[in-house]
Every structure is written in C-alpha cells, then in structure tokens.
Amino acid sequence: MIQPIKLEHPSKKLLFLIHGYTGSPTDFNGLPEYLHKTLNINVKVMLLKGHGTNIKDLDSLEFNDFLVQAKRELRKDLQKYDEVFLGGVSFGAQLALYLAAHYPVKAVFNACLPYKLKFPFNIPKLELIGIFKKYWLKHIPETEKRLRQNAFHYKEMHIKGLKIVKQANRKLKKTLTKIYCPVLSIHSEKDPIGNYKTIDILDNKIKGPHDKKILRIFNDKNHNIFFTENRFDIYKKIEDFLKSSQKNNNFNSKRVAAIIPAYNEGNNIADVLSVLSRTKILNEIIVVDDGSTDKTPEAVKNFGQVKLLRNNKNKGKAYSMQRGMDATKADIIFFCDADLKGLTPSMVEQIIQPVINQKYDMYIGLRNNVMQKAVNLFALNSGERALTRALWEKLPENFKYRYRIEAGLNFIARKRGRGYGWQKFDYYQTLKEKKYGIIKGTILRWWMNFDVGCAYALAIVQNFSRKKSL
Fold first, then answer.
1. What is the pLDDT of residues 327-386, one digit of tens each?
2. Of 34, 222, 251, 293, which alpha carbon lies 20 to 30 A from 124's?
3. Residue 432 backbone class (left: φ over 0; alpha: ψ -120 to 50; beta: rest)
4. 132: CB partners within 8 A, 6+ apart
5. Are 43 and 4 in contact (CB under 8 A)?
6. Helix axes 160-175, 63-80, angle to 10 degrees
7. Residue among 428, 445, 414, 430 nearest 373 (CA)
8. 289 bridge partner residues
C-alpha cells in the first residue's frame, strides 16, 4: 500500500505537496527528494483519500472529502512550522491554489492545472456518461510509461474525476483573486487535458504583484510534466522560485511600530509603556492621547523614546488609531490598549512574530478577562493585535468609527487578506466599571457593544454586496 512521503529536516520550513486525482505521492517523480536536499527543507506529500489502493475506493468520495482532508492537514502544519510552501500537480494543483487563497502560505506552485479543459473534457455534462461506464483506461505516452516504472498510479481514470475537477474550478473561480503570495504556474502546450492558456487566466485573476506571478510553458504531450525529459529543468525552475519567494518575503528588515490610543489612562499607561520600551522587536512607540483631562500626557513624557500625539478633544479609538498610522511609516503595526495589566515583552513579541513571518496578515492577543474567556466572539475584538500596513489600508472608512474598528479588521483580514490567527495570554484589562464607576462604566460597555454590533452588520452587508458583484 502506498504511503505519504515525509522527508524531515531540522528547519522550521515545510514544502506541502498534493498529488493528482487517481495519482499518488509518487506523482512528483524525484522532486521531493531534490528540493529536500537543495533547499534544506522539510517536504511532505500527502496521500489523498481513496488513493494508493484500488480505484473502486474512489466510488464514494466527492470533492469536499479531499478539500476537508487537505485543509485539516495544512492547518496542523501551519501550527507546527514557521513557513509553509504549497505545490500541486493537476487536481492537486487545484487544491493547492484554493488553500493558498485561504491560508497564510509563503508561496505556491501549480503544475498542469486543469482550469481550462480541452475537448472532449470541456463538453457540458460529459461526466454523465459515468452512468454507463465508470472507469476509463488512461492513454499514457511511451516516455511517461518508461519513467513511471517505479511510480504508483491508477491505470484507469474514474469518470467522477471530471465532475470533481469542474467543482474545483468553480471554487477557484471565486477565490483566485484572494491569492496574494508568490505564484509559479507550469504548463505544457500539448497537455491532453488542460489548455495551457490556463496560465493567462491565472495571470489576470491573481491580484498579487505582477513580478511574483511567474509563468512557464513547456512543450510536452504528457499531462504530468514531472514524467518528461524536461523534468530536471522543471525541478530547477521550482527550486529557483522557492528560493526567490523566501528572499522576497523576508520581513526581517521591516519596521514595527506600537500605537497606543489612550483616554484618561494616567494611572495605567506607565505600566504598558514600560513593557513596550523593553520589547526589542519594536522600532518606535506612539501614544495618541484622545483628549485626556487627567495626567496621561505627563505619564507618557516620562518615557523619552515615546512619541506623543494629542487630540484637541475626545474623538474615539478608531480616529486615534488612524492618527497613529498617519504618524509612522512602519510596515507592521502593534495596536495596544493603555490599561493592560500583566503584559510582558515576550507576549508582545509572540503577537507580532506571526505577522513578521507572514503566517498571517493579523494576529490577535486574547486577554484573560472573564467575558473574553467565556465568548470567543467578544475575545476576537481584543485591542492587542499586530497587522500589516497593507491590511489596514484595505479597511473601508465606515469601519473606522469608535469601537467598530476591531470587528472591521477581523472581517477584512478574513475576506480580503491572508487571514488572522490568535492566542490567549494571561494579561487582562481594567474593567470599565472599575475605572469609571458602575453606572458610567456599564453605559460605556453597552455603547461599545452597540458599535461592535454595527460593525458585524456592516460586514454582513459588504460581504453580500461583494458576492453579488462577482
């Protein structure tokens, strides 16, 4: 029985590969071993359900079975490794691109993507002939037969495969615009199943920087170009692409700024600034005093390296956050409330590091407050979060109002970015009822909850409008 391929290395980087429908982990024909050696990286080729045994094991499996399996494995690997790269061939390339649109991977390559099908596979409802014949013998060129002697694959094509490929294409049509990482597309002009013009479609749909959408066309008759005489050239193209992606995505030189909106926090802000001043990952610290009437400015001035901005009157948290953004050119921002207790430099770095490593566009630190421990929906609106400047710039203005801001950022990161992650920490926030008294504190809390509710309503409306326009 065929097993997944796992090549281990001490590094915290992983290349996650997905084989084709009716294929196996051997579909990559020496590529995993080559990249494991040349890139000093962990390499994994998952084994799709129903594969490596008998073609009849595919009878009951649908597209969603493979998608759920791939998602589950990738999520585990994203927790285990600092950097994850994706790759796939044929149906595996469809899965790899879909995952790249929804998860924070560093780069993705696709080979022989069957996005634009050739005749007769592009005939509408052709898959219905499966009612009469379920398995069809594959036509494999002689060169591929010779090179496949030690590689496992089903000798027949399952008719359900055409239905599954078309389902995958419908999913990709909606998600290709969400891919922001570097992409390498490899295709053959004479591929018998997929039209090589697929790469032009990818070039138009993927919205990332143009110089990161690298396209390569070869002139082979095989559907799987890893079993051709050009395979070593293809190995080198992929190696160069992954090396380039690691270099282009290096965030070590990026500036990180902490922005702290503060309103009447004279009794609390010194503790927070003391922690941030000792956090080595930060290049600058900015406090935006939102029209305080207490000694907040005096407390801030005790920290000489902290930049203090003052609003003439109280204009709300979102306004102050934007003013802080306008005052810095930093690439990564750490937002932090001014009344935290129990915060440490290590916690701050743990929140910022996943964004520096480009695992996420935003990472949220969840507090140890009673409400946040009880309800994740409230917890995810925590003020402690690191994010890229690019993500902030995608946020519509109607979310930049008082307490709508965090829920708005969550929505944008999930729908138009590389997603967000979160982690619970032992720091906590001073309760509003304790700072302002029971009556005023309760009113402020419910006013904040109302703002958050408005943000969720806006997110639903904008999501619906965007789907309608697609």
1. 999 999 999 999 999 999 989 998 998 888 777 889 999 876 544 443 344 446 677 999
2. 222
3. alpha
4. none
5. no
6. 50
7. 428
8. 262, 310
Integer Cα distance of 16 and 103 in angstroms? 13
CA pair distance 275, 348, nearest whole angstrom? 9
Domain of 465, in residue numbers: 256-469
Structure tokens at 294: 């207490």
If you average pLDDT over every residue of the chain, what do you get? 84
In contact, 353 and 411? CB cutoff 8 Å: no
- Residue 403 sits in a domain whose CATH number is 3.90.550.10
The total of structural domains in the chain comes to 2
d(CA 358, CA 82): 9
What is the spatial distance between Cα 431 and Cα 445, in angstroms, rounded to a whole number? 9
| Residues 6 or more apart in contact with residue 195 via CB below 8 angstroms | 116, 117, 118
* Letter string b/e over residues 411-431, b meaning 16 or more CB atoms within 10 A of that residue's CB: bbbbebbbbbbbeebebbbbe
180 & 312 share domain: no
Q: Given 248, 273, 306, which residue is the final one in a domain?
A: 248
- Structural tokens at position 365: 């630190």
Q: 112 and 9: one domain? A: yes
Q: Does the predicted model carry a pTM greater than 0.85? A: no
**Burial (Cβ within 10 Å: 0-12, 13-18, ≥19) of residue 465:** exposed
Dist CA 103 CA 106 (whole Å): 9
- Please give the structure tokens belonging to residue 238: 């992929």
Question: For the residues of 214-270, what is the DSSP string, one character each?
Answer: EEEEE--S-SSGGGSTTHHHHHHHHHHHHHHHHHHT--TT--EEEEEEESS-TTTHH
Centre a 10 Å sphere on the Cβ of residue 54 and count the other Cβ atoms it contains. 10
